[in-house]
Design brief:
Blueprint (H helix, E strand, L loop, with lengths): L4 H35 L5 E4 L3 H14 L4 E6 L4 E6 L2 E9 L7 E9 L3 E2 L1 H12 L4
Antiparallel strand pairs: 1-5, 2-3, 3-4, 4-5, 5-6
Helix pairs in contact: 2-3
Length: 134
């Protein structure tokens, strides 16, 4: 007995339509793990022996001097500097250390296309800023 082609095509269509949500969920999970893994990398975070205000001023001048950096946004109140470099959005944040005011935490995050973390770029920017205090 021959099976009509239309029945074979319909069964393939229904099988594919049932598997599509599973494939989409799987792809979403992979992208989520990939992004989380890069953003949890703390290579762009370090403690610097300087007051938070001093670190913010040095960070701002260092970022503005970077040759490939553009589109700067500096927010003195929250001690945050954001800019664009090498196809990536970079955010520099200075965190206070209340128990030890002579130290501050420097955090640098970099992400390409708002999704893929760029820990290598974050580390370069953080090292460039912290090297001004040595």
């Amino acid at each position: 007995m021959k099976t009509p082609r239309i029945l074979i095509l319909l069964s393939l269509f229904f099988a594919a339509s049932c598997a599509a949500p599973i494939v989409l969920v799987g792809v979403g999970a992979v992208v989520g793990v990939w992004t989380y893994d890069d953003f949890t990398n703390d290579r762009g975070q370090m403690i610097v022996h300087a007051s938070a205000n001093e670190l913010y001023m040095v960070a701002k001048s260092t970022v503005e001097a970077r040759p490939n950096a553009k589109d700067f946004t500096a927010t003195p109140g929250s001690m945050r500097i954001e800019f664009f470099e090498d196809k990536s959005n970079v955010s520099v944040q200075i965190m206070l250390m209340p128990e030890t005011p002579e130290f501050a935490t420097l955090k640098v995050y970099a992400a390409e296309l708002g999704l893929r973390g760029r820990a290598d770029l974050a580390q370069l920017v953080a090292e460039d800023i912290s090297s001004r205090f040595k």
